[in-house]
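Could you please consider the sequence and fold following this short note?
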Amino acid sequence: MILLLPTLMVGVWEIVRHQFLMEYISMDMGNYLTPVLVFLLSIVLLVPLFSIMERGQQELEQERAVKNAMEARERLAKELHDGMAQSLFLLSVKIDRLENNRKNGEVSEDNVRQITKTVHEVDRYVRQAIANLKIPVSDQIPFSLEQSVKGQLEQIAGEVMIDVSLDWTLPDLAFTAKEKAELLSCIREAIINVRKHTRAARVSISGEGDKDHWRVTVIDDGEGFRHNPFEVSGSYGLQIMKERAEGMGWGLRVDSGDGGTVVEITKGGVPA
């Protein structure tokens, strides 16, 4: 309307002027009246339209600001959970072990050193989370997903005493930097839950497929969940994993029973 109204007004005015008003209004007077009429039309009709457009723009900016704030809070929660919450859980496991050793009179300097190391890791995770929140995902430094998964697996396995195995054939080129970060966080959460919820003694991770169709599977031999794992009280990590997968357009399946738990993350269906 803002674009068309002045054009239509000038067109109608020129037709009426030349067809019906030439006897009453001279050519020069008509030329002077044309910009005056355009100005009056702008004041009467276009200014309210511009005001409506400006209000719409302001509302859009406010909604965008609220959305950005919510995304920042969600990202902060994920960063803190991936680093602090999981490390604090590992720290609690080590403290329980230290307490048992103390009762048996077997407290060693190595136990204390491991706890101190975990505390420093929590501090590092907090600093890294703060740094990551200041850097867009697209600017993150590329890394090897296979080596990262292997490193996370070995670290957690050593801390919580779990036998692990890795069968990884997925190429790094199949993922963007953001996909690598999100998938690694999902895998880490699945490994932590193996120890935290299922009390398994063995876990295996496999990755297969290509850029368009791939599957990552985490399998353990623990007790499994008695109910829907996403409805378990306090399963915030599983909810985050589900949100991560849905946000990336991946499929997530969690099957659990007496024989163990299977966590499967897929893209584009099951690879051939």
Notes: DSSP finds six helices and five strands in the chain. The chain has a mean pLDDT of 77.
